[in-house]
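[step 3/7] fold_predict: job queued, chain A
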Amino acid sequence: MPTSGGFRSGAGRRTTIDAVDRQLIDLLRANGRASYAELARQVGLSSPAVHERVGKLEAAGVITGYRADVDPAAIGLDVTALVSVIESDAVDDTGLEAGLREIPEVEDCWRVAGSEGYVLKVRVTDIPALEAAIDALNRIRGVARTRTTVVLSTKWEGRHG
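[step 4/7] structure written:
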């Protein structure tokens, strides 16, 4: 079968993702609750074959989990901000990352190239809560300063296809 890429398993071995694996991944990204029967119908395999393939993708760490996507505004998280973290010169990445992980308002954290070391997606109820989250971020050892961009509206998030 043709390959469209590959992945490294937990043991570091290179494993090939074929076109069917890629199609399964795309289908699961669009609907993580799809049944094996539905996936099998869409890729032209039996349910047991799909079950085995998905199990292998999970075991190898390609599929890392399943979750419910929730409308943030529906649960009171009306403010989204992207916060760039500028590190101090004497920084321990491990300690800094642990500190970032402790802030519950931080939904996503990316290590980036450039003048910032990290970019964070922060979700809060209102502007005072954003100010408190930024204050908490600035108190983390290794953070020299932050730069915040408030999101005015979200056109889409988490591209699925």
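[step 5/7] annotate
DSSP finds five helices and six strands in the chain.
The chain has a mean pLDDT of 89.
exit 0
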